[in-house]
Structure formats: structure tokens, C-alpha cells
Amino acid sequence: MKLYIGNKNYSSWSMRPWVLMRQAGLPFEEVMVRFDSFGPDSSFKRSLAGISPTGRVPLLQDGDLRVWDTLAIAEYLAEKFPERQLWPSDRSARALARSACAEMHSGFAALRSHCPMNIEAQLHSAGALIWRDQPAVRTDLGRIIDLWSTLLQTHGGAMLFGRFSIADAYFAPICMRIRSYGLPVPATISAYVDQVSALDGVRAWMDGALAEHDFLDFEEPYRLAP
Questions:
Q1: Do 80 and 103 share a domain, yes or no?
Q2: Do 100 and 129 reside in the same domain of the chain?
Q3: From residue 213, how far is each of 10, 43, 119, 157, 210 by CA, in Å?
Q4: pTM value?
Q5: Does residue 181 sit in helix, strand or coil?
Q6: Which DSSP category does 63 fall into?
Q7: Residue 222 has pLDDT above 70, yes or no
Q8: Using CA atoms, how far apart are residues 19 and 56, in angstroms rounded to an integer?
Q9: pLDDT tier, 215 (very low <50, low <70, confident <90, very high otherwise)
Q10: 78 and 102: one domain?
């Protein structure tokens, strides 16, 4: 299998399936397609021509099959490797995990817009201003805190459903945002962020992001230089 991804420092959508596969011990070849711009004539778009029908990453290639969209990739992997139990084994818990991932997939627009993922940067000053001036960000994070708190309390253990699952991979980029922007969260949520950040798969992704040294000004309008 090949997984096409973008820059590890910036690409939150790419992070999800990469972390899932790495943490679950699934064999795959990484193909990084560097962001340069997203115009039709960009190197990024040209590199994906004939590979990704949407011209975006991530994309999973398994033989002749191409699966695009993060959630579709996660579902495909769960079916292909049932022994890895990528979703919770309990049907009710599995439904909750799917609901949480679907909410992440389509929601939290303010948090994603105002706090784009940037693992390399320390943006606590920017985070304080965003927290002060963007009520929609406060609303988004409040919902995430409520969701995580309920799941952690209900299922026990360090992860949202007791053991690592697709849900934890799906929310890993939110953990990165909380870290980078210094967003205020309760101690239990901070502990979960630390647990996710310490996962081997997440740690490997973060190390890769820190090794890129690839400052893209269009991804970081809030900084003039790295």
C-alpha cells in the first residue's frame, strides 16, 4: 500500500491515516507530495494528476484501488485488517466512535480556520489573541472538551475508547493545535493530549514535521519568518 500525504508540519488530513497506519503497525509506503501552492499549475497538483481524482491528499493506493478522503481510508483499513480492531469492538462504542469522527470530519470549522495545524511553531501568543477574539473557536473547543471528557470517563483508559482507535488518530491534529497555540483545556484533557502526543505513531509524525524545515508563507500568514 502507498499513502500519499502532504507536508507533515501542516497537513492535518494526511496526519490522520498516517498515524492510524503507523500506530496499528500496518505496512505502507509513504509518498510525500510537498505543498507549494494549490493552483492548477502548481507542482503539487501536477504531481497528483492521474493519481488523485480530487487533486488532494491523503490518498491510499492499494494495488489498482485508490481510496481518497481520510474517513474512507480509515473505513477501508478497518475492513481490510479486522484483526487490528481499528474501531471499538463493542457495537455501541463503535457507533459513538464513528459519530465522533464524522463530527470532526465536517465540523469545528472555526478552530481549523483560525488555528491551522503547525507542529513546528510555538504560537501561544497568537493562541491567546485567538481565544480572546474568536468566540466560535471557544465554542468549538468547548464541544471538543465535552466530547473527549465524556468518552474518557465512559470508556476508561488513556484513549477515547480505552485503547487506541481510529477516533484517537482522527483527533490527533486537534491535540497538535492545542499544543501549538497553548489553548486552555482542563487537566484531564491536557493529560489526554500528552498521551496522544506520546504514541509512537504520533511521535514519529511530529519528528518528521520538525525535520522538514519547510516554511511556507501561504500556510503561515501570522508569521513573517520561521
A1: no
A2: yes
A3: 12, 19, 11, 35, 7
A4: 0.94
A5: helix
A6: T
A7: no
A8: 18
A9: confident
A10: no
Residues 6+ apart with CB under 8 A from 173: 12, 15, 16, 117
Give CA–CA dist 102/99, Å, rounded.
Answer: 5
Contacts of 76 (CB under 8 A, 6+ apart): 60, 62, 67
Looking at the fold, whether 40 and 62 belong to one and the same domain comes out as yes
- Give yes or no for a contact between 58 and 3, defined as CB atoms under 8 angstroms apart: yes
How far, rounded to the nearest angstrom, does the alpha carbon of residue 89 sit from its chain's CA centroid? 22
Position 48 pLDDT exceeds 60: yes
Residue 172: what residue type? Answer: A
Q: What is the CATH number of the domain that holds 103?
A: 1.20.1050.10
- Calpha distance 2→65 (Å, rounded): 10
Same domain, residue pair 167 and 59: no
The residue behind cell 482522527 is 170
Domain interval for residue 64: 2-84
DSSP, collapsed to helix, strand or coil, labels residue 31 as strand
